[in-house]
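Example A, followed by Example B.
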Amino acid sequence: MFFEKARGYLIAPTLLGVACFFLGIGIGVGGWAMLFGGFFASTLLTYHFTFFINSLAHMMGAARFDTGEQSKNCGWLNWFTMGEGWHNNHHRKDIAASQAILPEEERSDITYQILLLMEKMDLIKIVYKYTDSDIAEARKLDDLSRQKRKLKKRELATADVS
């Protein structure tokens, strides 16, 4: 039953695999080498990074928003996943094109930068961008979090002295 409904979803990957094979022959690296490197290995890496985010970004980092589950923002994961490390933000507003809310965070959201470029080229239209109130709320929550960390550090420092 699944394959009857999903048959259309197999067209694009099949065409990509065939295109990789013939491109490999055309540029002289070999069809099988290009099929492996250009299709199978890249698909495997894509799935691994997706699962990597869905596991690590629920264990490491800090949650900016209370979203009812354990998602967290983890900045260093952005370098491997093109911005997906802002996972808690994504769980807060999954409709937003950007995973990063604050303008200074957007630089590490490479996927969003690509989407902005595509929008400038009139290839796509970004439907939802974070509003000023979303940004203000994020800044307020970040400030509260910083204050809590400072308080905790002071408490630990006074406990060590006693």
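Example B, a separate protein, is given below in the same form.
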Amino acid sequence: MRHLTAAGVCFGLAIATIVGCSGGDELKLVPAGGTLTYNGKPLAGASVTFTPTKGPVATATTGMDGKFTLSTNTKPGAAVGDYRVAVIAVAASAKTESVDLTPKEGAPQGVNPYEAGLQNQAKSLIPEKYNNHEMSSLAFTVKAQGENQFAVELKD
């Protein structure tokens, strides 16, 4: 009987640990987005990737007016924190071809796995330095309160 009670206690603790840990760690996202321009003009159809120092990546695609709204793991918004930004914009003719957008395992060091999916596959419309979040020098902070609208300005 004593053996059954010890096993029951262990089972109960295991269930409590699983239930207690699964619900409280949901990622809190805040609305975030902005406008992307290249040499002062809106850049349509570009992929924007916000890579945090810690946590999940936030991504977006720009509209015809260069505006974008970030999402994280298919949910609207971005987590609060500091981000380095990469932008990928390829020629329209290249977009109609089959371009692999899946994250790449074993991407070169310093290259976000999402960014690696497009590198060297199509003609870039912007300087290559913007394709890599570590080389772009674009950095923004998503804040818990206030407006998180960023002006992402690319130049030659």
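On Example B: The chain has one domain: 29-154.
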